User: What shape does this take?
Amino acid sequence: LVSAAILHKLTASGRRACGMKPVAAGAQLVDGILHNEDADMLRAAGNVQLPVNITTPFMLKEPAAPHIAAALEGVTIEAVPILAAYTEIQAASDAVVVEGVGGFRVPFNDDFDSADLAAQLNLPVILVVGLRLGCISHALLTVEAIVARGLVLAGWVANTVDPDMRFMRENIDALEQRIPAPLLGHVPRLQDPTAQAAAEYIDLAGLPGWHSPRVQT
Assistant: This one.
C-alpha cells in the first residue's frame, strides 16, 4: 500500500513513474495470467506500463516465503533477470519504486536474499514500519541491516497495522528519535485502503533527491 501511495504521489507530480515488485509470492491465475495483489496495486498506481514479466520477474503461486514458493515450482530466484528488468524499467521511467517482499532479509535461495538484491540495486531505501507491539526493536534492527550494507536510508513511513495499539504516538516518537532519516508520513488504518487514500498521509518533500527519485521500499 505504501509503495503504491508513493507511486501515486510521483505520478501526480507529473513524473513517469513505474513500480517494480521483483519477487511476488501468492499469485492467482486469472484469464490465463498470474496476478498478485501487491503487484497489481503497484501497476495501477504507476503510469508507465510494461509487461508483467518485467515489473515482476518472479511471480510465484504459493503464498509462502519466496525460497519455499520457488522450490515448489522448480524455480531458482536469481539476481540477473531482476537487474536486467530494472534496467529496462529505469530506461522508460523518471522514477522507479521497487517494493520488497516480507521484510529486508528474506531468503530467495540458499545464497541470495532480499538484502543482497537491495545492495546490488544500490537504491536509497524507504523503510515501512508496521505499527504494532514490538515494532521499535524490529525497525531499529532493520535500520542497522540497511546501514551495514552501505545503503542510504532515505526516509521511513509509519503504517498502522494494529489500530488498537496502545501508546502509538509514543512509539512513533521513539522511532523518530532513533532512526537517522526523516519520517515521511503516518498512514492510519484506512477503511478504503487505496493508493490515493494512503498518499494523503505521505509527504515526499523530505526525500533526498526528490526531483529524480528511484527508491526501494
Notes: Residues 2-216 form a domain with the Rossmann fold fold (CATH 3.40.50.300).
